[in-house]
Amino acid sequence: MHAQGSFEVTMNPEPPLFEQGGLTVARATFDKRFSGPLDATSVVWFTSVRTPDPAAAAYVAIERIAGTLDGRAGSFVVTHHATSTSDGRSLEIAIVAGSGTDALAGIAGRMTIRIEGGRHEYEIDYTLPA
C-alpha cells in the first residue's frame, strides 16, 4: 500500500556532544505532525555529525509514530540513516520489524521524505498482514 501527505516539524536542539577541529557531534529531538493518510504525531531522537568539509555530514535517528495510517490506529517505529558527501546525499527510512502496535501490528515498509520550498512531504510504502 502507498500513502503520501505532508508534515510539520519542530526542532528541539541540545548542546553538542563533542566539538573539535571543525567536527561536531550533536543531538536533538524533533516533534512532527503528519497530515493526510498518515494522521499522526511523532517524536524523533536524532544524532548527527558535521565535518570540516561542508558537504560531508551524516545522521541517524529513531522515530516513533503514533496515530492512524489509512484509518488503522496504532504506532510504529522507523529508523533514519542519512549521509552527505560531495558526490550526493542518501537517506533511508525503514519501518522497524515488530514495532507496529494495535491495528498496525505487523507493518513493514519504507518511508521517504522530501522538503521543497519549505514544505515537508512524506511517502510511505507499506504492507500489513491480512
Q: Which percent bin holds the helix content?
A: under 10%
Count helical runs.
0
Strand content: over 45%
C-alpha-based Rg, rounded: 16 Å
Instruction: Kindly identify the CATH topology.
Output: AOC barrel-like
How many domain units? Answer: 1
Number of strands: 9
Q: CATH top level? A: Mainly Beta
Contiguous low-pLDDT stretches (5 residues minimum) are none
Considering the protein shown, what is the CATH homologous superfamily?
SO1590-like
Description:
With 130 residues, the protein is mainly β. The protein has a single domain, classed as Beta Barrel (AOC barrel-like), CATH 2.40.350. The chain contains no helices and 9 strands. It has an 8-stranded antiparallel β-barrel with strand order 1-3-4-5-6-7-8-9. A hairpin with a 2-residue loop joins strand 2 (18-20) and strand 3 (23-35). It is elongated.
